[in-house]
Amino acid sequence: MLQRTRFWIRRLLLLLALVIIILLALRVAVTERGPALQLWHTWLPEELSDSQLDRSDWAGYLRNEQRIFTEMKRNVSDRLPESSAETYNRYAEQSPVYPARFATDWNRSYQLLPDGKPRGAVVLLHGLTDSPYSLRHFAADYQQQGYAVVAIRLPGHGTVPASLTRIEWEDWLAATRLAVREAQKLIPAGAPLQIVGFSNGGALAMKYTLDALEDPALPRPNRLILISPMIGVSSYARYAGLAGLPSLLPAFARSAWLSILPEFNPFKYNSFPVKAARQSWLLTSALQSQLHRDRESSLLEKLPPVLTFQSVADATVSTPAVVRGLYNLLPANGSELVLFDVNRSVRLSPLMRPAALHAAENLLPPTPRNYAVTLVTNAAPDSNSAVARTTPAGSATTVSAPLGISYPADVYSLSHVALPFPLSDSLYGRLPAKPNEFGVSFGILTPRGERAVLMVSLDMLMRQASNPFWPWMRQRINQTLQ
Q1: Confidence (pLDDT) at 235
Q2: Can you tell me the mean pLDDT for 218-246?
Q3: What does the DSSP 8-state code read for residue 365?
């Protein structure tokens, strides 16, 4: 009997090995048919490690950042052929989207100080593959409200996408600690401190705050503002590292990338490495474990209020995870979840998936809840006018208030990337205040043509990239500063 069991175990292991070999072979075949790697996929800048970041300060971080940008010009931009200047290539010096051409290169870390003595401070944490550009409108508003602003370029970002093939999520968290230390220096003792996190930055904001509950040496924020937070990601990301195994052999280096695309966006990577997906899963996994651990130990009772803005339609992060993996664990501490519903009046609504149409009603547990919920939705099924329907914490009564804002007639939903950008944003806005300020205005592109002509998908170009409800979001955030 034992011999027979061993025989079948060997057969199963052999079969498993054969399946893995076949899958890796298919992975190699697919990537080898794709685009070739460019300089920005192969040159690796030297970022500070997590231990170096914990020993550094803001000035030291900026010095290293300047060194990286100087070396990037020498190792990438200066080595490109002159023909690259005619294309939308963020690394070509004469290209319309070359960041160093602009009045401000928003790929870099920055601070904003108000007139007079700051009455508080805020740390801004951008998302994965993103840059400090994504939260610049909130930065300007916080400054106007008398807050000192610290917006850090997280390691691996704002330079070349290859940098994300080396970075660990612990490096991002160490950079978060550095930014909070700097913010604390800019304000008087006892002044309020907030952290605003977008996407992956939302996960970092939560992780840092939980660490601060456990470690009194870490400055503790008074409130968290999360925008499309990465509380949970696709389970595929857990095994993303396997997809990059062939890249251990130099001949199959392209296997280290989930997508290899032209880099025409001045402030965001288009190419995406396998390791970045893996690190996002590791971060959210660590965050989930800590949330449950702190809830069981009652440490979560000390968590500051959390205000989150999330679209019910989000193809990047898991909206259900925001509800079940975060909000349903929170104590009654004044937290609120704001959900942006799909546009039910749009003519495309008959073509929407039932799961999207009914997402808002299926996401939430029954009332009463420990947290308030506000749903931004249509005032009526045939109306573009939007209302905010708020159910306070501990209540089953919903109050509706008109926003004075309408859904655009041709927009069927917001998206993961849309929430931080007003319609007036020069790069992503539908009504850019300064068209082509950064070489291109993605928000007004309406491409039409045949399939398989463009180098990028139409989904990428037509994804809703700005938020008609941004002024209301700003007002809600400003209310937390009172």
Answers
A1: 59
A2: 77
A3: P
